[in-house]
Write a structure and sequence with these properties.
This protein has helices at residues 2-20, 30-42, 46-59, 66-79, 83-96, 103-117, 121-126, 136-151, 158-185, 189-202, 207-222, 226-238. It is mostly helical. The chain has a domain at 29-97: Alpha Horseshoe (Serine Threonine Protein Phosphatase 5, Tetratricopeptide repeat). The protein is elongated and about 80 Å long.
Length: 241
């Protein structure tokens, strides 16, 4: 109980401490404010950059810096892990500037931001397998990069987007593999077979597809389906781990 009270008091102290430290951006000319934002961006001071860019965006919504401020905010939000704000800014910019010359970069950043939503600091730190996590952000990122390649095949970001799609495809395949493994552990043999075959159909060139054959064989064995077991064994010989 004492520990809970202490934790609560600490949380309140941090909350009020953050409120006291809230910074009000000075009312200076937009050129000065933008120069300060650029200096913060170049120095990697994302919080300071965001404060000044947001001030510019709200005080001068139709100013000379409008479009560049939003582009800079997209980048700063991404670097600062303000991912929801980043996506909202991307949607706003794309809606207002559908034919902008940097639309390929905006779409690329949308993919990166969705990818970042799948990231978890503690999982990275502890090297925890996260293949069973919700893959919706991964699907969104894959769609973003796929759209980039189709709309802007000659973009400077196309090659990197294509490489990231390979990693994303493996991530999605591993999620389905984790699901198939769950079904095997629950002795849901038909569900395991269906999921394993779906992996082989959708992601045939992945490690997960080859691993799914092991689960498929196990499920067929448990169901006493010897002919299917033998077919799976042949597939395993053709696709060794």
């Amino acid at each position: 109980m004492k520990l809970l009270k202490l934790t609560g008091l600490l949380s309140l102290a941090l909350l009020f401490g953050c409120a006291d430290k809230e910074v009000t951006v000075p009312d200076v000319p937009p050129s000065q404010l933008y120069a300060e934002a650029q200096e913060s961006l170049q120095g990697g001071n994302w919080t300071s950059a965001i404060e000044r860019l947001e001030a510019l965006d709200s005080r001068y919504p139709f100013g000379a810096y409008t479009e560049q401020v939003q582009l800079d905010l997209i980048y700063a939000y991404y670097k600062n892990d303000d991912l929801a704000l980043g996506l909202a800014t991307i949607e706003r910019f794309s809606r207002l500037n559908p034919t902008h010359e940097r639309s390929d970069w905006v779409l690329y950043m949308r993919g990166l931001t969705h990818m970042a939503q799948d990231r978890n600091f503690m999982h990275d730190l502890l090297r925890v397998d996260r293949s069973d996590r919700d893959p919706e952000p991964v699907k969104a990122a894959f769609a973003d990069f796929d759209r980039l390649l189709k709309r802007y095949p000659n973009s400077a970001y196309a090659e990197d987007a294509q490489k990231r799609m390979v990693a994303l495809k493996n991530r999605l395949a591993n999620y389905d593999l984790a699901t198939a493994d769950f079904y095997v552990r629950r002795e849901a043999w038909i569900a395991a077979i269906n999921r394993a075959q779906e992996i082989q159909k959708t992601y045939p060139d992945t490690e997960a597809a080859r691993q799914s054959l092991v689960l498929q064989k196990k499920a067929f064995e448990e169901l006493g389906m010897q002919e299917q077991v033998e077919r799976t064994e042949k597939l395993m010989e053709l696709n060794p781990l």
